[in-house]
Amino acid sequence: MIGTQAAFARSRWFAFFLESGHAVAQTQAGEFELTGPALQWGPLDEDTRLRIDAGSAGHYLFLSDRMLDDAIGVVAEAADLRQFARRHMVVTLGRSDPRTTDLETLFERIEAEAARAAFGTEISVSAYIRLLLVALWRGREREGAGARTTVGQGRREINRFRNLVEAHFRARWKARQYAAALGMSYDRLHDLCVRSVGKPPAQLIRERCFHEAEILLRRTTLSAERISAMLGFSSASQFNHFFKAIAQETPGAFRSRIASSQEAPATQAARFSDWP
User: Would the keyword Iron turn up in this protein's UniProt record (predicted)?
Assistant: First the structure.
């Protein structure tokens, strides 16, 4: 049995690829029986357990939030991919399914890179995890294509808005610019966001920018001036005011607190996971 409370206590996500044999995966979402080849992906919680029969073969992968964020990246499709990656998924594969070979190759390369621990290892592993997520995403889209009902106009529009935010939030676009790019009035965009997410578009845009600022402050040594320029602010003081209004502390204070403590930041209210 593989649990989560020892070496993997700081991980938040897992992938288990069973090449052959039998296993039972227990999570908060329920208990899943797997017969290889099969794959399970999902959030890693205190209830997660894997019971793997003797003689079975496969790979398991544990990820932190940071690794998942790096794998998803900042491409236009990142909002959709982030939403997809937060699900529990169980994929049953046939030995002749081309995805089986693809997944075997991806996990082998991830394992090889992790064992190498050389310069660029983390970048390479992130790239392979992104390929893994895209493979799962494409497979889920194919499986649901026949039975999926037509997506409502509102859902299509909010997805277009999310993707535009991913592409342009660093340019500091205003909500009205997004509305114009979507070919709708500001009132229509405002109503769409409030009905779908419970928040106006301007707040969603701010939260996305704050999320990026938080990542850069936590994971890099870039100065506040450099980060403010990367995020499209006219000055470091404008960035400081923006960050403090949400986090209730300056970027410098936030970075000092994170550097002196292993605890997660307290500013959890404004997370981009509020997207539907």
Answer: no
Question: pLDDT by residue (tens digit) across 61-98?
Answer: 888 888 888 888 877 678 778 888 888 788 888 777 88
In angstroms, the CA 162 to CA 210 distance is 15
| Sign (positive or negative) of CA dihedral 191, 197, 200, 202 | negative
Domains of the chain: 13-145 (2.60.120.280), 153-263 (1.10.10.60)
| Cβ partners under 8 Å of residue 106, min gap 6 | 128, 131, 132, 135
Torsions phi, psi of 67, nearest 5? -65, -40
The pTM of the full predicted model, rounded to 2 decimals, is 0.54
Task: Record the tokens describing residue 202, joined without a space.
Answer: 């301007």
Q: Are the C-beta atoms of 233 and 172 separated by less than 8 Å?
A: yes
- Looking only at the bridges linking them, the beta strands covering 38-43 and 13-20 are antiparallel
Strands (E), the chain: 13-20, 22-27, 30-35, 38-43, 49-52, 57-63, 89-92
Read off the amino acid at residue 120: G
* DSSP3 helix / strand / coil % (the chain, rounded to 5): 55, 15, 30
